[in-house]
C-alpha cells in the first residue's frame, strides 16, 4: 500500500518572535499564521531547530555596525532560526524532488516555530537512523567546520598525514571539525577547557590541550608543528597563532572576539590584510550555503562517521533560555529546540 499522506497543515501555529532588541527575554512564543510556501519552496513541520550564536546576535542587534542590514531601531524580521529538521507538510509550485511526508533537514526561514518555509534546494533527506534533533545541529556548524577544513587544504589525499589544530574543539563548530578532520585522515589536536578534554578525545583528537593550563601558541613542542589551525575562538594574537604552523601551513579564522560595535570584524579584516611569514596563509572564513556540502554531511551522518554532540535541549516556549545559554559561550557541542515532540 502507498504511504498515507500527512494531514493538511493547520492555519495557525506557535512561533518565537521579537519586536525590539535586547536580552533574550525579549523573545516570546505567540500564536501566528502558518506561512505558505512560495515557488520552489516547501512548508516544513519543524521537529527540531538548532540554536547558533547568530541568534543571540540578532536578538541583541549586535554588532551595531551591521544594524543597517537587519534594522536600525528595531528588527526588520520578527522570526528567528535557520537550522531545522522536520517533515514536509506542503509544497509550492515547481517543487519536484520533495513531497509531503518526506523527512528532511537543512535551512529554513524562521525555524523557531512549528512550521517554516524553506527552499527545496536548502533541504536534504534525513537518513533513517538519524534523529531530528541530531540533524538540526548540522547545517550551520558542520558546514562551517567542513568549509574551514577545506580552506585549509583538507582532505589532502596524499601522505604525510596532515596535522590539524582546532582551537575551540568542544564548541558547536569544533566538535564537528575534530570528527571531520579525523575522517579526512588528519592527526588532530584539540584545544578546550579542563571539563571538555575527555569529550574532545572521544571525538578522535589524538592530543588535547587544556587552555586553562597551557598556551598552545607559546609551548615549544607545538611550534611549527601544524599544517592547519582552525581557530573557532580568535583569542590569541595572529603572530602567536603563526608560530604553531609549519612553513606553508594555513590559519583559518572561523570566529573572533565579540563586541557590541564591530564584533569579530577587526579580526577578520586583520586576517585578510596582514601577510603571514614563511609562506603561511591566513584565511577569514565566510560560510556559504552549499547543497553539495550538505549532502556530503548527510552521507557522513548516515555512515556514522560524524555524530553531532548535543549539549542541551529546550522546548520551543523556552527559546529565550536556549539563546541565553548559547550566548554565555560554554555550550558543549550544540543546543537544540525541540518541536512536535522531536527525539
Describe what is shown at a glance.
The protein is an alpha/beta fold. Helices cover 24% and strands 26% of the residues.
Which features characterize this protein?
six-stranded parallel β-sheet, alpha/beta, 24% helix
3D structure, described in words:
- With 343 residues, this protein is an alpha/beta fold.
- 24% of the residues lie in helices and 26% in strands.
- It has 10 helices and 15 strands.
- The chain has helices at 53-60, 67-70, 132-136, 139-151, 172-183, 197-202, 238-243, 265-273, 291-302, 319-327, and strands spanning 12-17, 28-33, 41-51, 83-91, 103-107, 115-119, 123-125, 163-167, 187-192, 207-210, 226-231, 245-253, 281-284, 310-315, 334-338.
- Strand 12, helix 8 (265-273) and strand 13 (281-284) form a beta-alpha-beta unit.
- Helix 1 crosses helix 10 (319-327) and helix 4 packs across helix 5 (172-183).
- The radius of gyration is 20 Å and the shape is globular.
Please bin the fraction of helical residues: 10-25%
**SSE string, helix = H, strand = E?**
EEEHHEEEEHHEHEHEEHEHEHEHE
Strand content: 25-35%
The total beta strand count reads 15
Global outline: globular
Contiguous low-pLDDT stretches (5 residues minimum) are none
The quaternary structure here is: single chain
Tell me the distance between the termini. Answer: 27 Å
Mean pLDDT: 92
Major sheet = 7 strands, mixed
SSE-based structural type: alpha/beta
Number of helices: 10
